[in-house]
């Protein structure tokens, strides 16, 4: 992201009488954080479909140019806003078993979807087929979060002797997080714990570690 400030943006907005000329000059991470917070506030009020860069910039007291220097389109702005309140863990929980790890990971995701990140991600999921920018943003999210974390869970299970990972593909790693996201898209939050348990026991475990349990 750019480290430029919003002091030179003629379009910097805000409520009447509180334009950017009357605000302290903001740079770098501080301005980024205010724009992301404004994005989440707009999403909570208007939803993804009605979200506009102009309204986000006005709420943040910044100019449209400040926003576009940092994010190429609405989808990437919303994705970063979601990430700002839904930090990606470096490693998934380690409970000592494949089932326990999968449950802990999916429960953590479900809890995050019940927070401020939920409306942002639901908007992106709902418009998945409307444009290439949404598809790209969600593919990035899938690769960086769900798939990577499940791969780590599978690696640990392999080391414990719970499964053979030689035949496990990326599509198999995507199944559990994708099912959770689909339920969230259709039904919203909170995701019931019985749904999380069903995804793990009825789908993920038979797929990743087939055989008698």
List the helices and strands and how they pair.
Elements: H1 28-46, H2 53-60, H3 64-70, H4 74-85, H5 98-113, H6 117-126, H7 132-160, H8 170-187, H9 193-208
Helix pairs in contact: 1-2, 1-4, 2-3, 4-6, 4-7, 5-7, 5-9, 7-8, 8-9
| Level-2 CATH architecture of the largest domain | Orthogonal Bundle
In CATH, the homologous superfamily of the largest domain goes by the name Tetracycline Repressor, domain 2
Shape: elongated
Largest sheet: none
Portion in strands: under 5%
- Helix and strand string, N-terminal first? HHHHHHHHH
List the uncertain runs. Answer: 13-22
- What does the average pLDDT come to? 83
Give me the number of helical elements.
Answer: 9
Helical amount: 55-70%
Describe the structure concisely for a colleague.
With 213 residues, this protein is mainly α.
Overview of this structure, please?
The N and C termini lie far apart (48 Å). Mean pLDDT is 83; it is low at 13-22. It contains nine helices and no strands. It folds into two domains: 26-77, Homeodomain-like (Arc Repressor Mutant, subunit A, Orthogonal Bundle); 85-208, Orthogonal Bundle (Tetracycline Repressor, domain 2). It has helices spanning 28-46, 53-60, 64-70, 74-85, 98-113, 117-126, 132-160, 170-187, 193-208. Residues 52-71 bind DNA. Residues 29-89 form the HTH tetR-type domain. Residues 1-30 are annotated as: Disordered. Keywords: DNA-binding, Transcription, Transcription regulation.
